[in-house]
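FORM 7B: Structural annotation worksheet

SECTION A. Query
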Amino acid sequence: EDVMVLKVLALIILLSYLIGIIISMEILLENRDPSKTLLWIMMFMIFPGIGIIFYVFSGRNIRKQKLFRAKTRSSKLSHRQLLYSMEALKNIVKNQQKMLEDGVLMGDEVSPIKERVVRLLFNIGQFPYTTNNELEIYKDGHEKFANLIKDMKEAKDHIHLEYFIVKDSQIAREIQAILIDKAKSGVEVRLLYDDFACWRLKIKRSLLRELKEAGVKCAAFLPTKFPIFGGQLNYRNHRKIAVIDGKISYTGGLNIGDEYMGRFKKFGYWRDSHIRIRGIATHMLQLIFIVDWYLTTKELLNDEKYMPKMKTVGNTAIQVVGTGPDSKWEDIHYAFFSAISQAKKRVYIETPYFIPDESLLKAIKTAALSGVDVRIIFPQKIDHYIVNVASYSYLEEIMKTGGKVYLYQKGFIHSKVFLVDDEVASIGSSNMDLRSFMLNFEVNAFIYDREYINRIADQFYQDQEDSIQLLEEYYSKRTLWVRLAESIARLFSPLL
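SECTION B. Predicted structure
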């Protein structure tokens, strides 16, 4: 019997190696990042069985698979309207590109950093530059949800919500009551949520059931009964979007759950950044929702009421950027790199996870070594252990080049803020990590108005006051086991 068991184990190991070789060939042909490719091959060699399971969960590249073919679907004759919307967007961007070349798009507000980032986002993602906007910036869930609830109560035609996480919670029930009331009064209400991140809703089903019974349309993004075999687990809709009547929109870092209201003792006060937009930039957030909704439900929202004409409401310049594994380029990643590489005075970053690739890390280090004021605010409290540990190894490198790192003390900081000089700032759903840049569906608002950039900087300084500076002396006191844990976590950071 022992001999039979050994033979079975040997066969399993042999098959694991053969499957690992086949997968390795597939990865090589995909021309992925060399560090990731080598890491996967090493995984298959050292941990053949476990490596294959891990790859099925989080390593499969489905950019070119049928999962994300919304643009192809929209080209069908019966779905031309969505294609027309995209073509109209391209024409707007094309005209703006010419205006930028002629020096009339930004007037006296033009600067090398701003112009280059705007041009980059024109070229790689067809994201229009909008100026007829009024902006409000919120620092936590209390401010964001108080205003969102007020706007939803005043909705006349439709409410569109798209969130990574929706938890059955006190704030979710408050929102549910409003959505049910509006749906019963004839307002169109749609809720799109990430299937994997909202797994709790499959166990405690009353929240969604009651919404659906009242006429609210609910849909799970990338649903699958067998995520292990579907390969969809790795590609998550991390966006946070709310659109009311096509005129008012919200985006940022806050999901729907009580921890985002600071009601969890583990985290305490939840510091986050979210924005409310009234104006033309809302149309871009609406279009992102419409495409995601169509990809999920096949329902095409092509009525003109979803993109209503706007009166003049303000003059804040905003470029809304939506990116994901279906994008040709890593739009947000490229924009961050472009801005940092041109920084003259300051680079400020707030992020709960800091796992940059080598190009972005080198850009930040180069800025710091060039005398640019580089500061990063990072949470002291741990949300995801492995990601947190991996982040510290990168933060050490930033400090060695003269950058400053601060650990937030007031509670947990989940804010995703990026700011360069007085020229560009970004608030959205994207973390400063490889998952956000390459795997998740994300949305960020790039803001070019100096008044608001300075407001964001002022909040950054306030957060710095609520933090302690991380000094290099900390690293010299680390135990061997802590340093080993950081090194191992960093080794696997391309997969986190």
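SECTION C. Observations
The chain has 19 helices and 18 strands. The radius of gyration is 23 Å.

SECTION D. Sign-off
Analyst initials: ____
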